[in-house]
Amino acid sequence: MGSKMKLVGILAVGAVAGALTTMQLQAVARNALAPLPLEEVQQLAAVFDRVKAEYVEPVDEKKLISDAIAGMVAGLDPHSQYFDKKSFKDFRENTGGKFVGIGIEMAMEEGLVKVVSPIEGSPAFRVGLKPGDLITRIDDSPVKGLTVDQAVKKMRGEPNTKVVLTVFRKAESRSFPVTIIREEIRMQSVRAKMVEPGYGWIRVSQFQERTVEDFVRKAEELYKQDPKLKGLVLDLRNDPGGLLDGAVALSAAFLPDDVVVVTTNGQLPESRATFRASPEYYVRRGAADPLRKLPAAMKSVPLVVLVNEGSASASEIVAGALQDHKRATIMGAQTFGKGSVQTIRPLPSDTALKITTARYYTPAGKSIQAKGIVPDIWLDETAEGNVYAALRMREADLERHLTGADEKKDAEREKAREEARKKLEEQQAKTKEPPKPLPEFGTPEDFPLQQALNQLRGLPVLASKTAPAEQRAEAPAEKK
After folding, report:
1. Active-site residue, from 324, 376, 397, 446
2. Residue 133 catalytic?
3. In 303-401, which ranges are E strands?
4. Which member of 14, 151, 180, 349 has the lowest number of beta carbons within 10 Å of its beta carbon?
5. Long-range contacts (CB closer than 8 Å, 24 or more residues apart) made by 454-459
């Protein structure tokens, strides 16, 4: 399982969502390639020849071919990508959870870079970038017309160098420049603390190479503070995903031995697999079982998992496994809905192809592609209701996304997004002040966390006032 690697994920600036990605270290054998359609290949060659001969300025032949390949792959789905030599090098360097950049999770919206979330403690976080901000210029270059990879490259750089971003903030209807000094971002993917006597909180912000070890260390610290822990909140909000073996291991920390955590299914035999809560499915080659140090009580401690629209891929695997095995109460909002697997195929000349090869399924056989995990108890972001929830992107909002089972156009979600945007604009017009930012996760002002604690203590839970009626009906308002 040591070859399980993450998606482009949060490189210099981030990603559309997290990953469930497999690194295949061997190239595809030449004789395994399908026959090429001759007429279409001749057409491609003819276009290449015309561009090379007639374009207004001389063009780089290698770049033309690289761009043609990138365009072919980009037309498949939002998560497939062609890596040229430089971007593949960046990908391999950054799977360890550190990189040089500004520190945002990003997506593309209407041709602009959209801030999904600033990474906690990063330069982008410190200068005040917010979820939903749109980056319209990077230094002197307009973002419109750039690919994701090109935008990432422009925001990357050497440590202690500056980049000037022009940011449009919809909620305030204004644009403003922000100067950010690039630095090495070391992701601290696990945080934990005792939020009150007898109750612990563990936040996993991304699944990286050291996430499982860090999780075990934090869990040990909690149990040293209180060996008779009454309840635990596992916080996966805004966790974009990451390493598959990390998701399997984190699930195994709470589940009975050898139960199914996730299954995958695709066209290739290797894409059809079952991953269980056993060391052989998450221990890396030559390493010891990282979960061996966990207190035995972890298997039975009352557990709540917090999720929201930013919980994607690997974090959805964990939430889905714990929900299907009735090990935890899932609380929050419907998750991102990235239910696909990407495989990295190294190619000649130190390039590679990241291609979607499978869908993944929860232990009960449910595909969450373009749907997500539906919580057992819906929660709003604040006691007054939601502020940003309807504005957050989900898999179903991405162009060319793989369709989910029984997927249909979600007119109600589009309506909710438009109403939320209008409400924010009206509030801005009245108060001349931007909306109050949401409290930091893990603080006493964190409303969903307080409801999770109420659930663990057997107290009334203030369920969502804004969840669609039929979705509220799917889950009980309260579980004891």
Report:
1. 324
2. no
3. 303-307, 329-332, 340-347, 351-361, 377-378
4. 349
5. 455/304, 455/329, 455/331, 455/377, 455/479, 456/199, 456/230, 456/231, 456/232, 456/233, 456/302, 456/304, 457/199, 457/230, 457/231
Whole-number Å distance between alpha carbons of 381 and 308: 9
Question: How far is it, in rounded angstroms, from Cα 293 to Cα 13?
Answer: 34
300 catalytically annotated: no
Rg for the chain, CA atoms, rounded: 23
CA 166, 438, 162: angle at the middle one, nearest 5? Answer: 30
pLDDT at position 6 is: 29
> Using the 8-state DSSP alphabet, how is residue 112 labeled?
E
- Paired tokens of 248: 């399997």
Question: Catalytic pick from 6, 130, 218, 338?
Answer: 338
Q: What does the pLDDT look like over 36-49, one tens digit per residue? A: 898 989 999 999 99
Give per-residue burial for 362-384: e unless 16+ CB within 10 Å, then b.
bbeebbbbbbbbbbbbbbbbbee
- Residue 225 identity (one-letter amino acid): Q
Displacement of CA 366 from its chain's centroid (Å): 19
Q: Using 50 as the pLDDT threshold, list the residues of the chain that sit under it.
A: 1-17, 22-31, 470, 472-480
Burial of residue 443 (number of CB atoms within 10 Å: 0-12, 13-18, 19+)? exposed
Pairing outcome for strands 21-23 and 340-347 = parallel
Q: Which domains does the chain have, with CATH numbers?
A: 102-186 (2.30.42.10), 190-338+363-401+409-474 (3.90.226.10)
Would you state the structure tokens that stand for residue 220, as one six-digit string? 């040990």
pLDDT, tens only, 314-372: 999 999 999 999 999 999 999 999 999 888 899 999 999 999 999 999 999 999 898 89
324 is known as an active-site residue: yes
**Cα(195)–Cα(107) distance, rounded to whole angstroms?**
33
Residue 357, Cβ density class (10 Å: 0-12 exposed, 13-18 middle, ≥19 buried): buried
